Amino acid sequence: MNLRGKQKRFLRSQAHHLQPIFQIGKGGLNSAMVVQINEALEKRELIKVTLLQNTDEIAEDVAEALKADIHCDIVQIIGRVLVLFKPSSNEKYQKISKEVKVI
């Protein structure tokens, strides 16, 4: 699913108040973290991920890897913070994705 400009703008406004729930450090992005990020996206649909100062990873590369692995949308990348969106497959968690579809 490719997000349109208005949809991304809406998601950015929703993500503005969120705290990052994952931090990628010097261990980099590993498969266990990818699984956890996928599970968090399933429950929340919209999350922030931070890259710490001590990591060798580049934000754009991490975003592309996550997009390929868990098929999420990259809403925005600011510095070392990624905002990720993935509609939940579970009906009861689909709060944000329903609003996005309307836009």
TrEMBL record:
PROSITE patterns: CRM. This is RNA-binding protein. The keyword Repressor does not apply. GO terms for molecular function: RNA binding. Keywords: RNA-binding. It comes from Enterococcus ureasiticus. SMART domains: CRS1_YhbY. Residues 1-97 form the CRM domain. The keyword Ribonucleoprotein does not apply. Pfam families: CRS1_YhbY. InterPro entries: RNA-binding_CRM, RNA-binding_domain, RNA-binding_YhbY, YhbY-like_sf. NCBIfam families: RNA_bind_YhbY.
